[in-house]
């Protein structure tokens, strides 16, 4: 890791932040108090096979980093951040799991904005400052089983950092430190940046969000080609109220 700055004085270990759950519920998103909404039901279906893979319940043995779930899309605007947040919220309701939601879209971070939270140090700060550790930048929330790792400040050599041995070691630490932890990564779009393809090589499971009636077949095929090294890739067909068939689906008005 590179020591490029001193540790910001405002950073505290496992700082507690308050997510406005009523606001999220009014936005139509999944919360512990939102009840059996259609979106909540969608994500109950979406999360089940992902959790089976993470727990090695599929009969094929353990998946390396199976608890690292990478949410991406071919292009911007397809709803990947909303899917990442909803999936994290849904899994946080499980009795046997804790969730770490990572904003890995370091060029255009939006997880904290969606959750109504202010900016905070995070992933890039760990990778550029050897005085920082993971516990110092993880945000605990008022959802007891949900924590957040923000993207942190922008860095012009983000791709190189995400491909570094420091990042690989950090991902191993994140994956293995707690046996019950599921880690959801909101990643950059696959066809816009190179960061997503770099990160995808170290993930156990990939979920690609496809915007209904907008994303072209060519874009989907090209995006899938960029993550073909991962054997566990799933699709969410997003922003539609009708789904003619398939394994994963979801929608947002």
TrEMBL record:
Belongs to the CpsD/CapB family. Residues 69-229 form the AAA domain. It comes from the Bacteria. GO terms for cellular component: plasma membrane. Gene3D superfamilies: P-loop containing nucleotide triphosphate hydrolases. The keyword Acetylation does not apply. GO terms for molecular function: protein tyrosine kinase activity. It catalyses: L-tyrosyl-[protein] + ATP = O-phospho-L-tyrosyl-[protein] + ADP + H(+). Keywords: ATP-binding, Kinase, Nucleotide-binding, Transferase, Tyrosine-protein kinase. This is non-specific protein-tyrosine kinase. It is an enzyme of class 2 (transferase). Its EC number is 2.7.10.2. It comes from Rugamonas apoptosis.
